[in-house]
Design goal:
This protein has about 350 residues and is of the alpha+beta class. It folds into two domains: about 90 residues; about 230 residues, BirA Bifunctional Protein, domain 2. Helices cover about 40% and strands about 20% of the residues. The chain contains ten helices and nine strands. The strands form two sheets. The protein has a seven-stranded mixed sheet with strand order 1-4-5-9-8-7-6. A two-stranded antiparallel sheet has the order 2-3. Strand 6 and strand 7 form a beta hairpin. It starts with a helix and ends in a 7-residue tail after the last helix. The protein binds 3,4-dihydroxyphenylalanine. The site of 3,4-dihydroxyphenylalanine has 11 residues, from strand 8 and strand 9.
Amino acid sequence: MNIEKLKAIETEVITAINEVNTLDELSGVFNKYLAKKGLVSSLGVHMKDLEPSERATFGKALNELRKNVNETYEAKKLALEEIALNKQLKSETIDLSLPGVNYLPGGRNPFYLIKDEIEAIFIALGYSVEEGPEVESDHYNFELLNIPKDHPAREMQDSFYFDEQYLLRTHTSPVQARVMQAAKGKPIKIICPGKVYRRDADDMTHSHQFAQVEGLVIDKNINLAHLYSALDIFVKAMFGEKREIRFRPSYFPFTEPSIEVDVSCFECSGSGCSVCKQTGWIEILGGGMVHPDVLAMNGYDPDSYSGFAFGIGIERVAMLRYGIDDIRKIYQNDIRFLSQFRKQD
Ligand code: DAH
């Protein structure tokens, strides 16, 4: 081993370092020459074979070699690390100018907005909310409401029958009978929202399935003025303080007297327009005083108790309130329709 050989080794190692292109290749070079058992590290062993006079020069040259090789190695390592980092940064770049993934925030169906609002109005008046079965017996749906087998009122509520006895309820009124029987003669103040079914042909204003809110109040000395007051409060809360209601005589087998309720037109305030068909009034719901026979059939003495009842069509209220012209829009789940009811906040 001599100085020339050292120079040759230095050139070999530096060339090897300079020729690599990746950190992996560089670590191969490191292992071969610079690691503990690599060629450069083992050069020191030759010191002992040298004349003492030569050792100093050789030692100096060896240190020089180590310094040069290490510097070259460190510089190459830094350069390759920078290249690798830049490559990684480039591959992970996010283009902030790209549009994000779009999603549609949900909106509540106006049906449920109105259902909740009706419930809130009556809950504030002290009513509790009841439920009843949608598969109902003929007995509850008709008989207990004073609509016996051959009664012509059955014509208007043709239904979907399962058999002679069971059908999809045609109105929420059977819940009146159920609640009365459960209350066993005690005062009652309830509403019952729910789905009802009729064998109607579907068109702009009819659907084979729709929903009602039934109301029932029973106590001593309940009269028509109480019904008027409850519905007046309801209509003003739903359609505005300026709205008036009027009662028209009507007929339902389970109420006596029976009334139909109109609300003064919120579109023209009574002067006449297409919404109110030029009458100034819009028909909105039915009601009346609970028929004495219905009270008696369901466990109340009509001589000491009286009550009122009403039935509100939820879709009808929603259509009037929001100016919806076709009931089917409420069920079709069309985003263009539903998004109009999305909360703006
Ligand atoms: N059940 C009736 C219907 O579906 C609506 C109704 C009218 C309910 C008068 C009532 C009432 O409670 O008193 O057409």
